[in-house]
Amino acid sequence: MNLIEELRWRGMLHDFMPGTEEQLASGMTTGYIGFDPTASSLHIGNLATIMLLVHLQRAGHKPVALVGGATGMIGDPSGKSAERNLLDENTLLANQAGIRKQLEKFLDFNSGENSAEIVNNYDWFKEFSFLGFLREVGKHLTVNYMMAKDSVKKRISADEEGDRAEGLSFTEFSYQLIQGYDFYHLYKHNNVRLQMGASDQWGNITTGTELIRRIDGGKAFALVGKLVTKSDGTKFGKSEGGNVWLDPAFTSPYKFYQFWLNLSDEEAEKLIKVYTLLPKEEIESLTEEHKQAPHLRVLQKALAKDVTIRVHSEEDYMAAVDASEILFGKGDLETLKGLREDILLSVFEGVPQIEVSRQNYETAATVSDLLSEVTGGQIFESKGEAKRMIKNGGVSINRQKVSGTEDQVNFELLQQKYLVVQKGKKNYFLVSVN
């Protein structure tokens, strides 16, 4: 597989330095991408960058993932309008461990010569004194060269013009020099000849190639992918609730699956090439099938399935599909019983949730009492109202129609504590019995 051609047809290629294609064609090339441990999980914006490493390895080259224990203490100014809060060392260590675990899901660390590696730049910066860094690294690049970088110019010009930016501290200004030294160190000690990243990293990456040229007289290369954006031009990877994380503790598999399922047709057609490894012929076939019947959302479903399985598991994907059916009225009691508690809560996160003591639940005289008085009038304000809707066939509990207004309260509690009450076609309530 030719890496450049693969990235180009997938719409992932933004730019690369002259000579990069020749370097890749000359034999196995070691390339790296850096990840800042600003959180204990990566998000789907990062996943687009991870896919660059995945394709590098699939093309027969060696991927290196750098988890920036040192650079994470400073903060990259690229694409940001304000200085970020700096994290303490213990938090960074915990974040690094979380990111390492996620990277191991996508890269092959046991494939022989081109096995993936993970490195941490704190390992070579922890003994580097400030004066030593200035003498050995800082003297090789001029301030004019560093000021010319877009990430620096935008922050400084915005500050001068009174925009929202808060200027640029020396700490963040030095970031490109430190990232540049990462490239030099890996070039010298790990035979790395290529650095990749998103397009907003071009300035930092080329600082590294320049350092390698000036310090060692060496030749290194840069390749950047397109920054993935939504159809409105904003940065991709966020939902209304914030980042879409790869860690299920932050974004449940159900929400993760739903995010991809709810993409627009335009976004799905573009992103199925970026986030999946499906071959060109299959993607073209899916795209054509989708155009014939857009309402079936063939592209969104194929994308959501592929990414959910690779980020989480096939079991999580199946559970997310089952959970998705619930709100569309297609699931039954067995479907509900099969949902894990975290997924059940995720599905019904946006519906009214009502807590009932176990004593009050067990002593409720009838289902009409339960749905009115026992639940504090939050489902039905009165027992009479509950009875009328039950008689009209408008009430279900755990996907089973309630037929008798005087029925006993003997429902099977989901996860030994929950009832899903449906009032009419669209009104859901989650009753928690504690």
TrEMBL record:
Binding site for L-tyrosine: Y32, Y175, Q179
Chemical reaction(s) catalysed: tRNA(Tyr) + L-tyrosine + ATP = L-tyrosyl-tRNA(Tyr) + AMP + diphosphate + H(+)
Function field: Catalyzes the attachment of tyrosine to tRNA(Tyr) in a two-step reaction: tyrosine is first activated by ATP to form Tyr-AMP and then transferred to the acceptor end of tRNA(Tyr).
This enzyme's EC code(s): 6.1.1.1
GO molecular function, one term: tyrosine-tRNA ligase activity
Motif, 'HIGH' region: chain positions: 37-46
Oligomer status and interactors: Homodimer.
Protein name, UniProt field: Tyrosine--tRNA ligase
Source organism of this protein record: Pontibacter aquaedesilientis
Gene that specifies this protein: tyrS
Residue positions binding ATP: K238
